[in-house]
Predict the structure.
Amino acid sequence: MIDEDEIRDSYEYARRIQDSIQPLEANLRNVFPESFILYLPKDIVSGDFYWIEEVNDVVLFAVADCTGHGVPGAMLTLLCHNALNKSLKEYGLLNPGHILDKTMEIISESLQKEGNTILDGMDICICTLTGNSLQYSGANNPLWIIHDEALSEYKATKQSISFAENPVPFTTDTINLNAGDIIYLFTDGFGDQFGGSKDKKFKTRKLKDLLLSIHKKNLDDQKKYLLKEFNSWKGTGSQTDDICILGVKL
């Protein structure tokens, strides 16, 4: 007989383990005083995660979306989080594209065992910031930057971090930022949320417009507004996917 309390306790313990790999929002603000993280797992544990590390004067940060949600997604987050750390700390890589290349190699090896290949993996947006110089690379997930009332999108390499026989190298963009610019890293959960009067997806275009409409607010208020808009759109329906949005203002 299944003991629902035991299952719930197991999920909660898994959540505590998963939470331990991610910085608290207070820690994030020690690095980026003007920032927010909107992190909304669909279930108790999540297939999305965020990551931040400092190496001398370089800050590395990322938002990632692993295949699935719930327990399978959460198990992948631990594997992918470890691969990012290994790329940085064991291989000493600081270029975002090179980090993703090495992470791809590590994940690909991990997911192919004795002919049993798992095709799940991770989409990610990863950046390094040194002064006002930002470097970005993405696996399917783009980067958005708002500067002078306009939103610029930097395209990702169209490839997931997963098993691949012939992977293509990930590209790296270098962007010179200005004081007041806002950087947004995100997964697809917010845009994929069903809701509204016609039970349609929120969509990426609508999220862009929303961020442009609130970008003059402080980062705390932006987070509150995004959460309010999400709950309004979702209404009484269920959450479609995990959600993770990171905002940083220079």
Summary: The two ends are 55 Å apart (CA to CA). The helical segments are 4-20, 25-31, 70-89, 96-110, 204-214, 219-234.
